[in-house]
Write the structure tokens for this entry.
Amino acid sequence: MLRRWVVLHALAGSWAEGASREAIRERVAKAYDRYQKCGMKGARSLFATQ
């Protein structure tokens, strides 16, 4: 459960700071990789910004 909150926190925090879409995607992927240990390439492929 905590892992979900970390990813959501990265998303909401980046959005609140006014980060660009790519910066948000990178921050969320980094948070996801930190806990899932799937690698940044794999984590980036899970999230899209449009």
Observations:
- The chain has a mean pLDDT of 90.
- DSSP finds three helices and no strands in the chain.
- The two ends are 26 Å apart (CA to CA).
